[in-house]
Amino acid sequence: MLPEFDNTEIAFRYRNDAELRRARFLFSSMGSPFLTKIGMALTQFAIDWRLPVKGIIKSTIFNQFCGGETMQEAADTANVLGKYGVGVILDYGVEGKESEEEFDKAVPEFIKAIKYAASQKTIPFISLKVTGFARFALLEKIHAEGELSTAEREEWKRVQKRVDDICTEASLYNIMVLVDAEETWIQEPVNILTDAMMEKFNRKRVVIFNTFQMYCHGTLSYLRDALAKAEKKGYLLGAKLVRGAYMEKERARALEMDYPSPIQPDKASTDRDYNAAVLFCLENLSKLAVFIGTHNERSCMEAVKYMNAHHLQAGDKRVWFSQLFGMSDNISFNLANAGYNVAKYLPYGPVKDVLPYLMRRAQENTSVKGQTGRELSLINKEMTRRRLA
Ligand SMILES: Cc1cc2nc3c(=O)[nH]c(=O)nc-3n(C[C@H](O)[C@H](O)[C@H](O)COP(=O)(O)OP(=O)(O)OC[C@H]3O[C@@H](n4cnc5c(N)ncnc54)[C@H](O)[C@@H]3O)c2cc1C
Predict the structure, then answer these.
(1) What span, in angstroms and rounded, lies between the C-alpha atoms of 186 and 126?
(2) What residues contact 78, with CB distance under 8 A and at least 6 apart?
């Protein structure tokens, strides 16, 4: 059965009227680049100066895009989504930490999340960022093939151990791990580490997924190479496909440092490679599992149509669809309703620590033309259906 992405009754059935109103207010506000810019600057200022703004952040943008401040709160949100067949990726969304002590402290948080996920039917994944366990500058130096000092080599070993400890636990408890992709100038060590984890844990089933950012013009061939490498070394590839979140930053850095931008020349090229990557993965399901992370309805529909045409079961365990919590519920809930595997990225953590994530969401949603326009029109449609508008 083909899902209908404009069925708002299914899309928003987990949201009560008040939540729908809040979502409309938020998406309308974020639609204005001016308001978003001011809001982001004021929020950062208020947090830096320890002004009492946590309550207002929490009841607005935080509740829209995050599962809660603690794992227990996130678990409650996961239970609500689970009622409608939508799973969750627990994402301990703390970012921007730089000390060894903080990196060490994060490991038991992730292990706690894995154990909790294993006790639930609707939490098949956790996600992690390598920058949650390593200094950015260290990753940058490894990426640039700089000579590491003895202390830095030890530091890198500790990073590897932290990630290995988490993956070991995940494998033991049968929970899959998505390793996020970040800026291209730290991606090499992230790939090295993730490949090593896939080689170790993806022997019989896919436990670890690396992320492929299709907004880079080299990624499609990198994906093909990654599969060839996995085959050669005898493991299954976990391929999480995204378009990429750091386009402006990537382009600005390339310009400033005078090197060719790694980003595709235009959106159409990114779309073409994204859809080609989805197709490539679906054609190679005997050797990999694919995680289609996108809010693009067309990319999701093309995947669904391919699966239908090739008699792949909607619930085939090697194919997952995913959207971020608070966005594109019309895709997630309608896909789940039609039997496809869906999991929402559900970040959680203290409000001040998830701010960089929230800022990215606000920025991403500033165009009324694009995603925000779509979210708003769907919310309005549902509010009319519920006779709220
Ligand atoms: C479940 C999930 C997990 C994610 N994990 C990651 C991650 O680990 N790392 C990461 O970087 N991002 C991640 N993202 C964010 C993702 O990369 C995109 O930024 C976001 O989802 C928007 O892309 P889209 O496919 O949803 O939608 P669309 O609206 O179809 O595409 C927007 C995207 O297209 C690209 N684009 C836009 N304009 C241009 C242009 N002029 N030229 C070239 N390309 C352009 C950009 O990547 C932009 O974000 C994740 C997203 C989801 C849903």
Answers:
(1) 21
(2) 67, 87, 88, 90, 120, 122, 123, 346
Which pair of tokens denotes residue 194?
A: 């993730």
For residue 368, the model assigns a pLDDT of: 47
| Any ligand 1 atom below 6 A from CB of 262 | no
Q: DSSP string spanning 290-335? A: EEEE---HHHHHHHHHHHHHTT--TT-TTEEEEEETTS-HHHHHHH
How do the domains of the chain map onto residue ranges? Answer: 65-365
Q: Which two tokens stand for residue 126?
A: 């956790």
Question: Domain 65-365 class?
Answer: alpha beta
E strand or H helix that includes residue 382: helix 371-385
The secondary element (H helix, E strand) that includes residue 239 is strand 237-242
Beta bridge partners of 252: none
Confirm or reject: Cβ of 219 under 6 Å from ligand 1: no
For the question of whether the overall pTM of this predicted structure is more than 0.90, the answer is: yes
Burial track 353-362 (b if 16+ CB lie within 10 A, e otherwise): bbbebbbebb
Residue 51, SS3 per DSSP: coil
Position in ligand 1 atom list of the atom nearest CA 327? 53
376 pocket-lining for ligand 1 (C-beta < 6 Å): no
Going by the DSSP 8-state scheme, the letter that residue 263 receives in this structure is B
Centroid of ligand 1 to alpha carbon of 9 (angstroms)? 26
Ligand 1 centroid to residue 243 C-alpha, Å: 4
Ligand 1 centroid distance, CA of 293 (Å):
8
Alpha carbon of residue 63 to chain centroid: 17
What are the pLDDT digits (tens) for 33-82? 777 777 777 777 777 777 777 788 888 889 999 999 999 999 999 999 99
Nearest CA to ligand 1 atom 33: 243
- Separation between Cα atoms, residue 36 and residue 283, nearest integer Å: 41
